[in-house]
User: Fold these one by one.
Assistant:
Number 1:
Amino acid sequence: MKNFRIGVGAGFAGDRFDGAELLAQQGNLDALVFECLAERTIGLASLRKHSGSGPGFDPLLMRRLEGTLPAMLAREGRVLTNAGAADPRAAADLVKSKYAGAKVAAVLGDDVLEQLNLGSQILGTDRQLSDFAGKIVSANAYLGADAMVQALQAGADVVITGRCGDAALFLAPLIAHFDWTATQQIAAGILVGHLLECSTQVSGGYFADKGKAAVPDIANLGFPFADVAPDGSFVITKIDGTGGLISRETVLEQLLYEITDPHRYITPDLTIDISSVALEQIALNKVSVSGASAIESPSTYKVSVGIDDGFGAKGEISYGGESALYRAQLAAEIIRERWSENHKRGEELTIEYLGYNATRPWKSASSTPDEVCLRIGAHTFDESAAKTLCQEIEALYLNGPAGGGGATARYSKSVGIVSTLIDKSEVHPEVVFVA
Amino acid sequence: MPKLAELAFARTGDKGDDSIIGVYCKNEPDFEQALTKLSIDAIANHFGCESSQVSVTPLPKLMAFTVVIRGILAGGVTRSMRTDPHGKTLGSYLLEL
């Protein structure tokens, strides 16, 4: 049986378009995956859908498919994406309306809002979901590969999901192609997904540093793909001539990325151990990967629960010169006083001095900077208070200390996320082909 | 003792309110030295947090470590109003150890 070639066209909702287009047109791919859902994306999409202010799916979906789907269809390749967000069915309908010749499937069933048990424990805490009763806006289970495999085996060219395990988007076409059943191969397929799901983070993105980590042609990173063998071993690479770098180091960094316990990486399909994975640079920009081991198949799905968190307001103003920090601190005092005394607000203000302690709040810079950006933020359930904070920050132009420049402020709806578990038997993934 | 930056590389990610920093070395001697530097107390002291928030998992076959610092992200990306709500910058600070 021949190898299967799978690439990634987006590693987050805001990813570039051209990398995917090149892959689709010149990569000889069997499957292309767009991973577009961050943790809170579905919560925000649910709010959009229910308020009628926009689609419940990723608004960039059609833009992503424009330069990629025709090429993939021409070579009978598959496209999978979780850009369906809170409304995969509507996303699939829209895709079908534009690409009538394609077989388009939506995977439903990740929305478990109705099945949610308010007595469920919130992961990592001793609290229960009932603590947020009345504020829950969405609940989506991280589905595994099963329903996607079913869709692909029924001939789907395009599979659109809501919430699923990121790696499952990559595992599904591998299972559908190779008919894998052994846990060792499933583990390998999950590893393919884990390494590709953040797109260029494995091919030279999020890597470059002074001196020790140089990345060639870094402005034009090639999007990565994997050539997967029937036994599950695979090679990560990219199109010749594209920028970036695929080395043992770039792959190892991504292997470790966001895995709390490398001995037990839990995904909906299988828990795997990545501590003994073997990485070998076999040629320039080609790294072979093998050796993920299967631990067990979880009996539960993780559920991401969106909580209405009111509004987040933030703004900034910058000061320059020797006394910049003094004036930024004075400006912060002004905001603090007016927020609590004049406007009688009790919400906590987050106050940072960019250039002094913003990314490192536990330890201020050792010397006084001669330019500082004051940043102020707050959460509030009162929209008018969010507006007030923005106005107060901008008012520092005229009413604040000397020489304040670049005052801007804005607020937006805020959705918090908590996680819980749901028994797999309570969740019913479903494939719908749209006509 | 050299800085960790001279022995290792780091990539930072997040889950909820926790920072997850992958650290790795290019050879055994660097890994052995990094192992002694990456004590829980030293990391806690470096980030101004409690030792109970920190865990370090050495991965000798990969000459790597997973460092987890729990509760350091002011609520995490969905909640924090900080400049860097993901804590993406924390790995660079860890390398200053």
Note: Chain B has a mean pLDDT of 95.
Number 2:
Amino acid sequence: MNPSTLEIPCEIPAEPQNPVEPFLRMDRMPHIWCPGCGIGTTVNCFTRALLDSKANLDKVAVVSGIGCTGRVAGYANLDSFHTTHGRAIPFATGLKLANPELQVVVYSGDGDLFAIGGNHFIHAARRNMDLKVICVNNLTYAMTGGQTAPTTPAEIISATSPYGVFEPAFNLVQLADAAGAAYVARWTTYHVKQLARSMGEILNKKGFCFIEVLSPCPTLYQRRNKMGDGLDAMKFYKQASKVRHGAPTGECGLTKAGEIVVGKFVDRDRPDYFELLRSQMTASLGERYAEPEVMCSEC
Amino acid sequence: MHADPKGVLTGVHFIDGDHACCEGTLAAGARFAAGYPITPSTEVVERFASRIPTVGGIFIQMEDELAASIAIQGAVWGGAKAFTVTSGPGFSLMMEHIGYAAMTETPCVFVNVQRGGPSTGLPTLPAQADMMQARWGSHGDYGIIALCPNSPQECFDLTITGFNLSEEFRVPVMLMLDECVGHMTEKVVIPEADRIAVTPRRYTQRVPGDFRLFEPRADLVPDMVRAGEGYRFHVTGLTHDERGYPSMNVDTQDRSVRRLLDKLKPLSDSRAIFEAENLDDAEVVVVSYGITSRVAQRAIQLARARGVRAGKFRIISAWPFPERHIRDLAGRVKAFVVPELNLGQMVHEVARAAEGKAKVIPVSHAGGSVHNPEAIVKAIVEAAR
């Protein structure tokens, strides 16, 4: 052994050094995610975005569904809800409507948000509900062992498509755009700066905002398809990604090994649910309209 | 504590059970409802949609019953009292979220205006065939409360009771109406707000850091918090410890799931809600609930006129089942007659509680109308032989 290594001071600092620690439930570490998984990277970006936004963290709530990304709610040191499979968005809708001063962030995976929960996604976007939806897209059902998702590209081998996927996949950014989302962006876990910046933007934007983050699943998706490990995924993201802000979302579909169009595609102002509610009720009821006082402090 | 007068429509009304139920939700303090249209229940939220903008609250029509039944739970953790309304097929879709409410101890109310089933069944006609589903419909072991009104007045009164019990025990409460009760129009008296008792949510007095979300008090029920107050709490449908953290552990599972049932025990015993008549001399007791109890009332009169000492036990709180009361009666009567608009559901509970000490005679009906009282009289007379 090189004697010089022994001289390196190895005191563990008493105070947390990593700036994201205050945002995590450190008493729940280590987390359950696999080596090379990208979910932790997205959480790191999210906590940096929160830090930069100077938001009052007591007023930020995270709602997740079920799956690997569904576990984010359990690690975020915020008011956090791990709901049922596919139903994070309607839960978040109730939470936001009852308590409008909360910043409600839905953090979930592609299977949860777009297969079992797909209907809720398009309706929340249609209503322009003031929710921030972050979808970690690993192109598979990872928690259950790597089955085909509505996002899995053609020709991929999965646990339930042993001879290759042949169903067409959803293009999530096009779906969000078509359903009326106020903000739509896509990044990969290679694009940590850009992702953190986008997350910061949606924390300051009203209405239904959507970020898709492509994220590696080395254990199930890549291993089964001989795509290497987490580092290989980063190399692929770096090589295949092309930043095209404002690209027509219809041109941003994903394939097994083709180009990954990233960037901010949609950023538009639409009145959100509360504005629409207030304006219609005031028009119909005039002074008889009572602003919602949903919370019961003493009731 | 008393009802907030903003939501209370004090006066004498001539309205149906669905509308009376809606007035009950408002009097109880509900300021959030999420629903999806389904006959014969929709009038409850139609009225809520009309009333709530001037009271101050939210109605949202969701995209399906799964969404409605979880949106209300988001609203509850945001600080609201909340409910949803449905019937057979929608009730089936809500089952997962009844389990979520039970597991996360989220106080909320599900109104089920029962219609004939299975599947699409008889959308516009009555049945009482969801009684077992109300109790057992979601997977796993858990407890719920179910109340069965038999008139529009009770739709009002028991809706308030339902909300109050939901807050006290932190459980989902089912209001089990049926198409007849929901669509029957009668006099409904709504008292002054200060005559209506409302159970406030039991928010913790502890400060963040010194609070555990699922630490039960002596009555086995933990205190609540709501989002946005600095508690930084975590709610999950996974088996969780007292901090609310997932715990895949046999001891935690045993302790927490047993508590979900044990906390409701008073309701099967001293706090069971029922109505009894002519039990002192009864040789045959008719056990009924909901709309069927009104037909049973007539049958009991007819049987008494024919010389049979018939008594009435009307179940109001069906779950937890009022077990001790049936067991006590079983020791001193010949038989129970159990009419219901299904092919045999609560009758099995009566038989279980009777422990063989009295005959238990079902008077089944597949639904679509109410019983002919004569069918019940016949069963009473035969039981007395």
Note: Chain B has a mean pLDDT of 97.
